[in-house]
């Protein structure tokens, strides 16, 4: 927090001296919820560490917390063709310190409009991210308000990148995933950064958005110089249909070696992803995921939205041995706008991780979590 205060002080002193248009904004997101995790469910809401199953028992409880997607930022018009931006995230300090900095950097950079297109440099969402396809807000282990970005939607978090945009086409060079698995070999080397591209075709009634992503690197045995090449890629498609006050939104994506690429899906267990590559089996992991959302604006005050997310991971981890798991999340919410900038969002839902299946072993129940959550969202 001290770092943020220093930054804001410097900005405050600098604003009067700069010929720029500063537009600050913020969003505070407080949630009240009740979560019930059964004995086989690994994890629970990140903002309520007390709600965890273990020792063969389920667990349940009430949580009231400031969720980690709360934010403070600004957009800065430095000139007619240059825009700067920054955004800090806010985590509650009482029980989230284990997640890292309570104040953390979400986005930072600038956009140069050169007429035919624009160049963005800095930290931002990547082109293959599906934003705006869900409003789900409960904490499934993702600090909440993640809109299904790790529970059915392709997402590698906000990343440092260099991105070119021409109309609705985006292509970006992205920081490679330095946390990728070294397969136990001791060293990894990237020749190229990650690359992603996306395009939107839009009409007044519907839109479609294909996305692609690619990364490759080598894991090397330093003693012998032998190496393994690990290639990841993602292919996805999003679609929306606008039916007056109602809408339908759907996505599907396929990711090869998702853990190596940086893709996470919390509907499946880490044990099913296994680092997304196995040197012994020399076989790739495959993640298929998708979302389907329907909703409608009933009036200026009340809306309704229901959706589901899906994830299926499988990998041959040894000759004749395959690991597979399928998970789902379901939710129903009714956003209520009580005043400009103030929204109350009741939501109920369930995460079902079904069974973890390993060839030659009995299927293991991966558990369920059910919840009722109310978000008090203040945008200013």
Characterise this structure.
- With 380 residues, this protein is mainly beta.
- It has one domain: Beta Barrel (Porin), CATH 2.40.160.10.
- The chain has helices at 2-14, 258-261, 270-273, and strands at 21-37, 59-66, 70-79, 82-90, 103-113, 118-124, 159-166, 169-174, 186-189, 194-199, 201-202, 206-221, 227-243, 246-256, 277-278, 283-297, 303-318, 321-333, 336-339, 342-352, 355-358, 364-365, 368-379.
- The chain has a 16-stranded antiparallel barrel with strand order 1-3-4-5-6-7-8-10-12-13-14-16-17-18-20-23.
- Strand 7 and strand 8 form a beta hairpin.
- It is globular and about 60 Å long.
- It starts with a helix and ends with a strand.
Brief synopsis:
The chain is mainly beta. 6% of the residues lie in helices and 56% in strands. It has 3 helices and 23 strands.
- Distance N to C terminus: 20 Å
How many separate helices? 3
H/E series: HEEEEEEEEEEEEEEHHEEEEEEEEE
CATH homologous superfamily label: Porin
Shape: globular
Number of domains: 1
- Low-confidence residue ranges: 13-17, 274-281
Average of pLDDT:
88
Mind telling me which CATH architecture this is? Beta Barrel
Number of beta-strand segments: 23
Characterize the largest beta sheet: strand count, sense, and whether it forms a barrel. Answer: 16 strands, antiparallel, barrel
The largest beta-sheet arranges its strands as 1-3-4-5-6-7-8-10-12-13-14-16-17-18-20-23
Broad structural category: mainly beta
């Amino acid at each position: 927090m001290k770092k943020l205060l220093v930054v804001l002080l410097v900005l405050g002193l600098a604003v009067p001296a700069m010929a720029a248009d500063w537009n600050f904004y913020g969003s505070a997101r407080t949630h009240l919820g009740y979560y019930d995790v059964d004995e086989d469910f690994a994890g629970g809401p990140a903002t309520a560490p007390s709600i965890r199953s273990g020792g063969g028992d389920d667990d349940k409880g009430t949580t009231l917390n400031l969720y980690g997607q709360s934010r403070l930022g600004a957009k800065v018009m430095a000139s007619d063709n240059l825009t700067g931006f920054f955004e800090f995230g806010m985590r509650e300090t009482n029980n989230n310190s284990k997640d890292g900095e309570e104040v953390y950097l979400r986005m930072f950079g600038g956009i140069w409009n050169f007429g035919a297109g624009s160049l963005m440099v800095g930290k931002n969402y990547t082109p293959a991210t599906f934003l705006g396809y869900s409003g789900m807000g409960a904490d499934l282990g993702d600090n909440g308000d993640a809109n299904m970005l790790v529970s059915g939607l392709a997402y590698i978090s906000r990343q440092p990148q260099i991105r070119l945009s021409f109309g609705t086409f985006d292509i970006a060079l992205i920081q490679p995933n330095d946390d990728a698995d070294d397969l136990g070999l001791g060293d990894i080397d990237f020749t190229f950064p990650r690359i992603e591209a996306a395009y939107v075709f839009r009409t007044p009634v519907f839109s479609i958005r294909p996305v692609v992503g690619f990364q490759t690197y080598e894991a090397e045995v330093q003693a012998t110089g032998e190496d393994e090449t690990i290639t990841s890629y993602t292919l996805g498609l999003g679609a929306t249909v606008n039916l007056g006050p109602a809408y339908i939104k759907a996505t599907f994506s396929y990711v090869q070696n998702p853990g190596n690429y940086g893709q996470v899906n919390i509907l499946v267990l880490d044990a099913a992803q296994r680092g997304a590559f196995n040197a012994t089996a020399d076989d790739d992991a495959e993640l298929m995921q998708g979302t389907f959302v329907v909703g409608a604006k009933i009036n200026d005050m009340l809306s309704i939205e229901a959706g589901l997310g899906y994830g299926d991971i499988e990998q041959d981890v040894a000759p004749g041995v395959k690991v597979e798991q399928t998970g789902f999340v379901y939710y129903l919410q009714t956003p209520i706008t009580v005043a400009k900038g103030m929204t109350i969002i009741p939501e109920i839902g369930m995460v079902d991780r079904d069974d973890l299946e390993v060839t030659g072993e009995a299927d293991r129940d991966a558990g369920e979590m059910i919840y009722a959550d109310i978000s008090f969202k203040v945008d200013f």
